[in-house]
Design brief:
Layout (H helix, E strand, L loop, with lengths): L1 H18 L2 H4 L3 H6 L3 H45 L4 H39 L12 H50 L9 H35 L3 H26 L10 H30 L8 H28 L13 H28 L6 H21 L8 E4 L5 E4 L3 H22 L3 H36 L2 H6 L4 H30 L4 H13 L1 E3 L2 E3 L1 H33 L3 H27 L3 H10 L1 H7 L1 H16 L7 E4 L2 E8 L3 E6 L4 E5 H6 L2 E3 L7 E9 L5 H13 L11 E7 L4 E9 L5 H19 L25
Antiparallel strand pairs: 1-2, 3-4, 5-6, 5-9, 6-7, 7-8, 10-12, 11-12
Helix pairs in contact: 1-4, 4-5, 4-6, 5-6, 7-10, 7-12, 8-9, 9-10, 10-11, 11-12, 12-13, 12-14, 13-14, 14-16, 18-19, 24-25
Length: 823
């Protein structure tokens, strides 16, 4: 509405100048004659004013945005200069600074897009005419000036954004360093020596007094609750409802255990089934009692006005500690299951599961007790000596418990074979590294807390405990995901509906499992470094740098670009394989019946798809092809010598596909190897011999050496069968029988007809050869064998003798050999 209000006076003014004041218009008579009609002039003026107003609004919005950035960054700089740092304020200012950087990056993309459009418009106008050339129209000159102003404004905004990004980046790094410095300062705080005599004489009496005060508070809370219950009879209904709820929870507990718990009938449950049973047991044995405790407490805790809130603090601390112990102890019992080896989540021996589970339950009890005293004593003004003694006591107990878990004999892995016999083996390397790390860090925690560095010892112990939990969860999650992938791969949907082969499903399973472990490592690693005190601001900044890209010299490496290029290449290759399948099964059978042509065209599609996928991947990486050309030119000599065979075979493969001197299913003889062509690959051609052996022949050898292709243009071929007959046989009868035997065969062609050659008068008989032709030379051996069978039968019936070689040995002197002497 505000813009419309600004436009209306202009419209009325233009109308007034056009109709009511013609003498004013006459001063611009030349311009009016060349201009558009009056309505177009009015619209043009309205458009000009509208654009001007839009530009002014855009300028005001930009100025407001820059002012907001400046205000946020200046506040962060003022906080840094104050030298009064806290972890909360540092995190808050870091988030504000990173938000400014994110907004600046978004604005940069928008400004770059506008600048590109403005530069394109300016290039469309062409260069500015020289003084000796015809000057451009005023309207063109006005547009040129406008575009130049817009380009200048966009470039100025780009400069402002770059300055803001540099400033925000420096402030973010400074704030992150402040977080790290605060952590280091906290870890260097030194408390009183917990084992010093002065500390013990001060802390022990205070401990008993604090404990007595907590006990007195609990008694007062119980007396208050008892008094309230005695005053109100309506609590009978509440107690009845509470009893009904407890019965319902106990019923749900039993139903869950029966439905999802451990089934003795299952001898070898899967990991996912064991996990579900463990969770069911945790809920039944841990969750239900906790719900009952919390419900009972909330039911009797009437209101802040009735019972003093301070009286409820130790009771809440006790209930929280009990809940922690019940929940964690039930999970440990479900995971280790010492009496049910088939249902353990950890494959440990019976002794190992029992000892490790017992130690963990003791550790949980110590941890729950520690949490109770921290919560119960926090508002009672506990002295530094008592705090140091309590912290050291619980920290040493927890560290010693962890040390007791590190021996290798508790972590021997149980392997079950098909006959249900079990063998023990040592744990994997990662578990050994974890055990040694736990042992070393536990000793460091005890020693550092004993010399007064309680904060450092607590930091080490807490971080180590959380790391163990994260690692255990990641291993459990990996096992569940492996089993889930295996179950999905074995479903009939993938095998039957999608028509995937078993080998393809196994490859899918392998690659998914191969991607699961790195993904879980990254996911778990994020939390591990976080629990060790690395600020999440640094993690987000490092992740952003890895994703958006970082520069190494003149090269920018971006994880997003790499993954995008890899994904596009894989998609391109999958699309190529799918297109090859369509060409082989649906397109080529309708074009030609030549199977070799089918495979050649499909192979050509594969080559083309590979080249296109590579080009798309390179484009997604944003690689400057001119730099690639320079590098390729510099390395051309080395590539020429090192990869000449690969390149030669690759090019030869392309020639074989398009020239087609050999095709798939051709019968060829190469370097003494005879067989059928099965596949023409990028580097070599696969030849299957008649004894079912595969021979890989480099593609370059097929072009460089003579190749006999029996089925190059067609499958026609000639069959020759030689035979000898005894001297004195009727040669005409022999010829007639041979022609009859050849002509009666199924695959022998009638035209050209078989014929017989009288080849020679041999040493042992008369040599003949019958020759005939077949339309499928692949049956050559079978046809020749059938003709020989027929000849043998026909000659037997006709009484024609087939001679065999005879040799006469003549002795020197022509006499009989001398008799053998006796002796």
């Amino acid at each position: 509405m505000r813009h419309l209000a600004q436009l209306l006076p202009t419209v009325f003014a233009a109308a007034f100048l056009s109709f009511a004041a013609p003498d004013l218009v006459s001063a611009e008579e030349a311009f009016v004659e060349e201009s558009a009609p009056l309505p177009q002039k009015v619209l043009r003026e309205v458009t000009r004013i509208s654009k001007k107003i839009g530009r002014e609004d855009d300028q005001r919005e930009w100025a407001s945005r820059v002012e907001e950035w400046e205000k946020t960054l200046s506040a962060a700089e003022k906080y840094i200069g104050s030298e009064e740092y806290t972890g909360t304020d540092s995190s808050r200012y870091y988030r504000q600074v990173t938000e400014v950087a994110s907004n600046a990056l978004e604005s940069q993309e928008a400004v770059e897009t506008q600048l590109l459009e403005q530069q394109n418009l300016l290039e469309t106008l062409g260069p500015v005419p020289r003084e000796d050339e015809i000057q451009e129209a005023d309207e063109i000159a006005e547009k040129r000036a406008l575009y130049l102003a817009q380009v200048s404004q966009s470039e100025a905004r780009q400069t402002q954004i770059q300055l803001t990004l540099k400033r925000a980046e420096g402030l973010a790094e400074h704030l992150s360093s402040l977080r790290r410095e605060l952590l280091v300062d906290r870890l260097q705080i030194r408390s009183p020596y917990p084992l010093a005599p002065q500390t013990l004489t001060t802390a022990i009496p205070e401990f008993f007094s604090q404990t007595a005060a907590v006990g007195s508070t609990v008694l007062q809370w119980l007396e208050s609750i008892t008094a309230l219950l005695e005053k109100r009879e309506s609590y009978a209904l509440w107690i009845l409802l509470a009893g009904v709820a407890v019965v319902f929870l106990l019923f749900m507990r039993r139903w869950i255990m029966a439905r999802y718990g451990r089934d003795p009938a299952i001898e070898h449950p899967s990991y996912s089934r064991r996990t579900i049973a463990a969770l069911a047991e945790v809920f039944a044995k841990g969750g239900v009692p906790i719900v009952i405790l919390v419900a009972a407490y909330e039911g009797v805790q009437l209101s802040e006005a009735t019972i003093d809130k301070a009286l409820s603090v130790p009771v809440e601390a006790a209930l929280a500690s009990i809940a922690i112990f019940i929940l964690l102890a039930s999970f440990v019992g479900a995971a280790f299951a010492p009496r049910r080896p088939a249902w353990r989540l950890v494959r440990l021996s019976e002794q190992g599961s029992y000892v490790a589970g017992s130690i963990l339950i003791l550790l949980i009890a110590v941890f729950a007790t520690d949490a109770f005293f921290q919560r119960a004593f926090e508002n009672n003004g506990v002295g530094d000596e008592l705090q140091a003694l309590l912290a050291f006591s619980f920290l040493a107990a927890e560290s010693i418990g962890l040390l007791l878990l590190t021996p290798q004999r508790w972590w021997r892995i149980v392997d079950h074979d098909e006959t249900s016999t079990s063998t023990l083996r040592n744990p994997a390397t990662v578990w050994n590294v974890l055990r040694y790390s736990v042992a070393i860090l536990s000793i460091v925690a005890i020693v550092s807390s004993a010399v007064g560095y309680i904060e450092f010892g607590d930091y080490v112990l807490e971080s180590m405990t959380k790391t163990i939990v994260i690692v255990a969860l990641m291993f459990s999650l990996r096992a569940i995901m492996y089993e889930t992938v295996g179950a999905l791969v074995q479903t009939s949907l993938l095998r039957k509906k999608l028509e995937l082969r078993i080998i393809t499903l196994q490859r899918i399973k392998f690659w998914i499992n191969a991607a699961v472990t790195p993904g879980l490592l990254l996911f778990g690693g994020f939390f591990v470094v976080r629990v060790w005190g690395v600020p999440e601001e640094d993690l987000y900044r490092w992740a952003q740098v890895a994703v958006t890209g970082f520069s190494v010299g003149s090269i920018t490496i971006s994880l997003v670009d790499i993954l995008s290029a890899l994904a596009l290449f894989i998609i391109g290759m999958l699309a190529t394989r799918a297109l090859q399948g369509v060409v082989l099964k649906h397109v080529m059978p309708q074009v030609t019946e030549n199977v070799g042509m089918h495979h050649s065209i499909a192979a050509g599609v594969g080559y083309l798809g590979l080249i296109i996928a590579l080009m798309i991947g390179v484009a997604a990486l944003g690689i400057d092809l001119s730099n690639v050309a320079l590098i390729a030119g510099a390395l051309s000599v080395g590539i020429g010598f090192g990869l000449q065979n690969i390149v030669s075979n690759f090019v030869s493969g392309i020639i074989l596909i398009f020239e087609q001197p050999i095709k798939v299913d051709d019968w060829v003889i190469v370097n003494g190897q005879e067989g059928m062509v099965k596949r023409i690959n990028f580097r070599a051609t696969e030849l299957e011999t008649f004894d079912r052996a595969s021979v890989l022949i480099p593609n370059a050898d097929l072009l460089a050496n003579p190749v006999t292709n029996r089925t190059l243009k067609d499958k026609y071929g000639r069959i020759e069968v030689g035979i000898s007959v005894a001297y004195g046989s009727d040669t005409k009868q022999v010829e007639a029988l041979l022609l009859e035997c050849a002509a009666n065969q199924q695959h022998v062609m009638k035209n050209p007809a078989p014929f017989v050659l009288f080849q020679n008068f041999g040493a042992d008989g008369l040599d003949f050869e019958v020759r005939c032709y077949t339309s499928d030379v692949t049956y050559k051996a079978i046809i020749a064998s059938a003709i020989r069978f027929s000849i043998d039968n026909a000659f037997r019936e006709a009484g024609i003798e087939i001679p065999f070689p005879q040799r006469v040995v003549h002795l020197a002197g022509g006499g009989a050999p001398p008799p053998l002497s006796e002796g």
